[in-house]
Fold these 2 entries.
Entry 1:
Amino acid sequence: MTDPNLENRAPKDLPKAPDAPSVFERDGEDTHFGIPEETVNAVILALEANQDQLVRELMAPLHFADAADLLETLSVDDRRQLLEVAHEVLDPEFYSELDETVRDEAVDIIGLDAVAETVAELDIDDAVEFVDELDEHEQKHVLEAIPAADRTLIEQGLSYPEDSAGRLMQREVMTVPKFWSVGETIDYMRTNADKSATDFGNIFYDLVVVDPRHTPLGTVPLSVLLQSQRPVAITDIMHEEMKLVPVDLDQEEVAFLFRQRDLVSAPVVGDDGRLVGMITIDDVVDVIDEEAEDDILRLGGLQEDDLYAAAVDTTRSRFSWLFVNLMTAILASSVIGFFQGTIEQVVALAVLMPIVASMGGNAGTQTMTVAVRALATKELTTTNAMRQIGKETLVGGINGILFAVLMGNVAWLWFSSPGLGIVIGLAMIINMLVAGVTGAAIPIMLERRGIDPALASSVFLTTVTDVVGFLVFLGLGTAFLL
Amino acid sequence: MTDPNLENRAPKDLPKAPDAPSVFERDGEDTHFGIPEETVNAVILALEANQDQLVRELMAPLHFADAADLLETLSVDDRRQLLEVAHEVLDPEFYSELDETVRDEAVDIIGLDAVAETVAELDIDDAVEFVDELDEHEQKHVLEAIPAADRTLIEQGLSYPEDSAGRLMQREVMTVPKFWSVGETIDYMRTNADKSATDFGNIFYDLVVVDPRHTPLGTVPLSVLLQSQRPVAITDIMHEEMKLVPVDLDQEEVAFLFRQRDLVSAPVVGDDGRLVGMITIDDVVDVIDEEAEDDILRLGGLQEDDLYAAAVDTTRSRFSWLFVNLMTAILASSVIGFFQGTIEQVVALAVLMPIVASMGGNAGTQTMTVAVRALATKELTTTNAMRQIGKETLVGGINGILFAVLMGNVAWLWFSSPGLGIVIGLAMIINMLVAGVTGAAIPIMLERRGIDPALASSVFLTTVTDVVGFLVFLGLGTAFLL
């Protein structure tokens, strides 16, 4: 399916390749970055007209990040066609910017030899990430096809646990012996300049001062180095309070550290305390994004971002979550089943029962969301866990009373039954109180048991609020209205 | 409420102030950063015993970010006591790290004169943020009490729109005229060194090369400058493809740019194209966090992070969302109300109807979550919107058929009624199809109308899936089972 506006255009309307986008585009009030829609449409038209040369001319001037965004907005067929005709004009870093699903597609299209060439040109951390996502036989093929020095570095990278600091780090670190001066350091950097330095291949922000064992003693921001006099000892300007990252540390902890301390880079050390690499903020920003995205998706009942996945894969991956929910829904329904006799006599109970369950579910979801987020940011700890559960119980109770009065009156007027109003009011107080307690307690308990609270909390929560909601409302109805 | 484990300890167990935490702590497998629980407990015990001097000794060696985290985990009373006895040992930056609610409390406790002293010592961007959150009369008091030069800068900062690039930027930028060489640049930086440079007051990562009008021509990463030979012209090593940020650009767009291009800093320009400041990654990381947090909270039905708010404020802020949900729940119930006659005759419909509504709601939430997230990251655009809606309709339809077969058989066996099985199966197919379409279409339509999709989508969605679920299931039941 393509944009209907496009299909109406005649092929003769095919646009020329526009000038490379200006560095500073303003578009009325809506100044924004990202790939302009005209460029996307021009590429789609060129693809439809099979104007391969035009496609290449349109793609070549784009920044690799824009090119990746552009590819991702296309349909599966257009993606394939674009890669087939234009992959040779794309920067290797283009592939690092792609979503995993789309990168898998790209590997199939461009072939393993082109993948090997691409991987050989990437920074080691990006190369490791790319290779890691390949199948075993693809990995073997690609690793064999790239130069031995790079291969060793990539294999070393792959040896660190997934999602660990070792996977995020750069292996090349600018280190300085502790007895050097500022002048000696600058002279050394200038003489031993990385040839790629001036084409921005290897940008760094801090030096690491090391002892002869290669143990980090401190870091020196480059701006501090540049503003210091040449004779000053490097140890006089180094930052000793640096945080050292163990190479096997989980990336979530790395992200927490960078965020909490506003770092741009941090030295990574092995078990023996020696420097093995450096993590820079750009890789951590990706992790921060990923962690937030994971939480959002899991709270929404998804295992992964399936925006680019084929419909059949998406259907399959969502099925399991829906299946779990079906089980809890059947459980809740079986509670209603016990009260069939009551419902036959007071059918108004059937009309009102979803309100009790739904208000409990929504109140519980509010509480759960705060708790899940606070656990992720380490704001909810053993110190304040009991206090939070207490507070949420209170909030649930107060809102329960407010909504009980409100809904009790509505029910009374609707069905002209004061008894029904009292029953629904009591049921709402109890269910919203329970929602407050469990909305806070479930994520905390899951976290303590090492289960991702974002993933599992909502199933438990809605089970509780549905079962309690139906049970209390219909139970009270049976007791007082028959 | 305090941790029960603590209350059992006798006062004589009061710990001594521990040594300042080591820079590299390992704790079994669970190496992690953040404030150690022992320190928190030690502070709580010292507060309970009114050992003011001990509290100060415990707080003084902490990094300001850890001190802020520690304060936030305490109860309201402990927070007040801690600030009263220890606020003079805390770094001014401590206040920048606090959650807004907690910072408001702190302002009341330490008083406006202490706030003014603190603000005067902060970086301008942090000072602006702090002052902006004060009441009008507090702002006036604080601004009058700080030195004129700082006051002007802060007032300038406040004049930019909230959440704009102007609020995020640093005003001090290291600029270089375009005719300089690498050597001249380094000599200039060394001679004009900021006195605070070596105590890490003003760290930067890029120079900006400007023309005589102060229009940015390019940026030079410090690592490139340091690795270039002294006679090289600065214009030969500058990065001309830099992205310039308009001073009134929304912070979301700034975050998108930094994330997409892996930037650590970007020059900010006024309407006339002249350089007015520089944004660095540490401020953008906060924005990225904030945006993700806002999405998570809004999807969960919350207006703001109320973790630290008092129970009464939390109750009030959650009430409005729950009220909206009550209205939609009453609407859904009124649909059931039309079918009271049917339910009296076939009470099994009342037992099963929550399943139809709940499966639609869950399937729709999955779709909506993907769409909301993809809109936030600009992955969902006009180019692929129709395609996504089409795909989600397909996914909803396929899963609808699968669950229809499953649940149809369950209903048949449970109530020994093949007709009931067919009715619930058909209702589930229709509701999950509708859930797929609306789950994708609602966020897209809201975004086009300028309404935050994370905030409003789920109300519309659950209304649709509840109303359609009850209507179709009970309607089909009335048609075929009576």
Entry 2:
Amino acid sequence: MTKPSRDGEGALGFDPAERSGGSIAFIGVLHSNWAPGGAPKNLRQSREAGGGGGRVVIDAPYRDGLRGLEIGQAIWLLLWFDRARRDLIVQAPRHAHGPRGTFALSSPVRPNPIAIEAVRITSLDHGAGEIGIDATDAFDGTPVLDIKPWLGGIDIPPEPEG
Amino acid sequence: MTKPSRDGEGALGFDPAERSGGSIAFIGVLHSNWAPGGAPKNLRQSREAGGGGGRVVIDAPYRDGLRGLEIGQAIWLLLWFDRARRDLIVQAPRHAHGPRGTFALSSPVRPNPIAIEAVRITSLDHGAGEIGIDATDAFDGTPVLDIKPWLGGIDIPPEPEG
């Protein structure tokens, strides 16, 4: 395991990958135009840059699970950022003023590197298990964990009171 | 493993828990007022019912990760629905017209039972690792996987074109 590389960063001292509470199954893979060193920072950047779309291929046993999804629909794509380190608990991103806790950041570096991406379906082939999505910031080859419908009535938190 | 219990449902024929692609670490636990048989169906129901708030307790090694979070802030709480079966790929929920694929549903039953909950922080004790949240639909004792900031510019998909 590498050491924290920027001032103020803090590591756990263990790798969360070795503290298993449960096991995840990879249900497919994401194909994108991005590789380490050249990916957009987030979905907004991906959309602004153009060429940021992606293609999800779901493994055969899971393809029946796509029944009912439609082109144009907004979904959550859950990904496993398998190339991110998992032990940094305080990080000093270049854009921030000083170090911040991992849970206050959208960084891919986190104890469980699960990414949630709010995207739209641009194409759909149920038989082949292929889903085109309008944007992604994830590297080509990233494992897929789940797809869920995006629901405005639930996925937007209520306005703060007061 | 139990068999599908409603007409039209379909099972994988294996338990995704046994097809491990990666291991997840539990970073804390959720305390709520809900138990099997008596939980709201989603966050909206939880908020309408009242008494739906919860309390997250983050394990000691991960508490530095909370630095920078604030009361009132909107966050994603990622949970592991450890009491849900994982092998149903086509489901026939009572509210739907006919069976639908798991990925077209928000059901807790899915190959990787990861829940994402858009909530607001109502209280915060960094030292004790305690975070109050305004609503949850999860059972008391549900394992916590992650906390991320909720960001309107990223977590709301763009309007469909045309």
